[in-house]
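Re: the 77-residue chain
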Amino acid sequence: VVVADDNGNVLADSLGHQLTEMVSLNLLEPIHKDRKGFMIALVGGEQCCVGYAAAPGSEGFSTGWNSLIIQPMRRAQ
């Protein structure tokens, strides 16, 4: 689970090392269009399901924060 700002800067990462200091802007592009949803994307060279949502903000102000849940798609063996 990652929280990042609109520029891709990682604000929080549940594993502390899942992503480096930046989220690829390719991962953030759908958030800017749809605000919430999911996609299949390469993250660190691994195919992952990525759920995302933009923070709604409050009182008409946006925080510019985005939540991403990144789950690797590994084949059952």
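The chain has one helix and five strands.
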